[in-house]
Amino acid sequence: MTTLKLTTALACAFALTGVGAAQAWQPTKPVEFVVTSGAGGGTDNFARMIQSIITKNKLIEQPIVVVNKGGGSGAEGYIHGKAGKGDPHRVIFGTNNAYLLPYVAKLGYKLSDLTPVSALALDEFLLWVNGKAEYADARAYIEAVKAKPLGFKMAGSQSKDTDQTLTSMIQDVTGAKFIYVPFQGGSAAATQLAGGHVDSNVNNPNENIGQWKAGQVKPLCVFSPVRLAKGEPVFEGKGWGDIPTCKEAGLPIETFQMPRTVWLPADVPTDSVKFYEGVLEKVSETPEWKEFITRTAQTGRFMKGKELTDFVAKDEAANKKVFEAEGWVAK
Amino acid sequence: MDNIANLMHGFSVALTTHHILLMMAGVLLGILVGVLPGLGAPNGVSLLLPLTFSMDPVSAIILLTSLYWGALFGGSTTSILFNIPGEPSSVATTFDGHPMAKQGRATEALSFAFLSAGFGAMAGVVLITLLSGWVANFALKFSSPEYFAVYFMTFASFIGLGGASPLKAVVSMGIGFTLASIGMDSVSGNIRLTYDFDVLLAGVSFLIAVIGLFGIGELLLTMEEGLKFDGVHAKVRIRDVLTTAAKLPRYWLALLRSSAIGIWMGITPGGPTAASFMSYAMAKRSSRNPDKFGKGEPEGVIAPETADHAAGSAAMLPMLALGIPGSATAAVMMGGLMIWGLNPGPTLFTDRPDFVWGLIASMYLGNVVAVVVVLATVPLFASILRIPFSIVGPVIVVICFIGAYTVGSKPFDIWLALAFGVIGYVFKKLDYPIAPLVLAMVIGDKAEDAFRQSMIFSQGSLKIFWSNPLVSTLMAIGLALLLFPLIGVARRGVRRLATARDQ
Amino acid sequence: MITRFRAEITTAAATALFGLGIVRGALEFGIGWDSSGPQPGAFPFYTGMLVTLASLATVGLTIVRRVAGSAQLQEHFLDGERARRVASFFLPLFAFVVLSMTLGMYAATILYLVFAMRFQGHYGWLPTLATALGAAAFFYLALEKFFQIGLLKGPIEPLLGL
Fold first, then answer.
1. What number is the ipTM of this complex?
2. CATH topology classification for A2-122+258-326
């Protein structure tokens, strides 16, 4: 343990001395983008979109290689990042699972094995019910659920993940009690709701938009402090901006959002962190990125440095509270 | 007849020189990734995805789907020639395809495979054209209990096949199930059976098992036999391709039955791999001489290939209309759709008719292009067998291990492939059947998830599997498939008793 | 000399042990049935159990057949000649895997193909080197350049500036 600390200290010292000597850091070999989801997943789209923007605008001189390491809900990717300790050519793309996974499962990495770089967007969550359901708003739906504990099914993606955490929060503030059914992904949760096999889900906008357009599902409220950006109408003249926030609709959860995050391994030179921060900030300002954000109805928000670490600390604390209450924390 | 008009419009979108060239490029690239075991269609599609960001969506999807068709064909090629399934769905093709190649009938086996695959794909596309609306609604009726019933049917059809020692079949299938449950359990969120080894977090990839069990295991056996590989004597003539084509109509029943199974499994969530296994099982069961299966029976190639491609193309429908990816490749393409700004869903057909019908038209054209291209490569591939085995053998070894590494870029997978190779060799020598292991690995965890989701739905009551006409029918068919062989055995036993008494 | 009997017993014992290992691993997660159906460990537990029981039954059956004097079980699983052939293929293959880990997959590919063709297949140096270098170059161009997938690399590639 002591030797490890010593090497870490030494590595840091070298990194620090390197700062003065070298000019702004630049990648010297191909950069590896580690995606903590399988091909086709949300994080995969996020990373490949950034890759395409970087390549198109020539923001990084070296080629970029994308690798999917989605095993163990993404833990595989973060462990791969940990193994690249001190290597600034390994960039890891994820969500808040970077800091939440170690709580719910016994894993071979800790948050301190990663260096935060930035977050580029917040994925929003909405409460959806079947398009034919009679509930006019979130309050009516929650009342119905409260009247019949364990009589309503909430579909979500995975277990002990964002969807189930949010379900647990809803139960906590309202006293309602759902049966939570974990599916393999948001698209399965969407079709199960459209087919009327479950009563609601808390999908992200782009996971349910296809079904909403067809009127098979309808949104009740969005778990965000402010309404979503206006955008084009989706169904019967209503668009994203017309959906009330959950607080307005009588479901007192101020905010529940999932950051799309980027990390480096631990002990990388400070200059390399600055370099990627710079590149990603430029990415977040391109028209292509803005279009991607609008299309997927995410909220674009670039965070780095203190703002990011503060956000992480706050998000971590809120989730930890739920994990402890539900008894999900892995021993 | 709206659909026909739409399709004609689709042809006008898809039928340009630019698109035909894209199809040919896609098919050729697909054959390349399909031939390399491990790389496979999902990887190939995600690697090409960045290239498509700057294309218009119709061209992009034509390139990607053509690559998919090419990869499916490439996967069958290596199954037949070297007993290495390049794609999971071509495992069942090895059962009879490789014995045919060993007997010097590689050209025949390849031609049968490609032609019947083309037939299956066409059947799938015709269905999409004619019944898209109806099928999309039907697929919405499926929830976890129905999913489980479909997997149950697949197992039931395969278990009844018999053959090897039942105890050994149980061991083999059990190992497959347990391997499938390693890694993240999505229903409980627990990480199971990794014994604290990080390398097991992502589970044991099915592809690694196949590369080892089939590829390396087969090489060890071939070596032990003293390099007897009759492919050397095979004459490769383009005429053989044509005579094989002339023989195909004789198998019309197998073609139709396999297309039906494939389409069914493509629409329901069974997928191409389950479809090919089930189709093989049904072909063997309904055959007049089931003993020939596994020893180089053409129908054993035709049945899985037709079903595989029928399922592959029919699975595009739930992907477009519902946003359910029917296969790993479809999942990647769906990611692509979102990046191109298209949202899969019921309204995609009305919102973007150019795209949807262009794609469907391109599926007709793409498969014709693919069949022509791969048939042209048959002599080339078949002549690989004429190269002395002392060169081809080591090259296959290299391909297998490089393939194993490309699955997940993990050095551990190389060791795992080696271990599976030894297991495959020992199992084959001792008559342990390998097919049940593979089938259990592919759909074991999906079946488990569907079962446990159903139990959450019903709060622990098994009655949910008989709760509506659809799921009850599926379960009843599954039970019948499971029990029929037993009844057959019992009847034969009774008859034997009766004849014994007569004497 | 290994008889088929010994091979059968050893294999069945190995699969029985594998089954037991799974059973042990599954016990960690609960194997019962609660209101939400089977617990996470239940499915692996029962399949592991099934593997173990079927393996033990295979052992039993094999012993019974042996006692009954089955000729098949007396056969050689591997005789000298065959064992030599398998070993002459398997050992280089094993060396290839070890070399891949240490020298990287490209160097291992070249060394392995050279060994197999020149020293086992007795081909001339020219076809041997052409095949070995050709294969390595093909994989390099197809994977690293076209598909941008990196293979395992060793100490040699950086020296060549690749």
1. 0.95
2. D-Maltodextrin-Binding Protein; domain 2 (3.40.190)
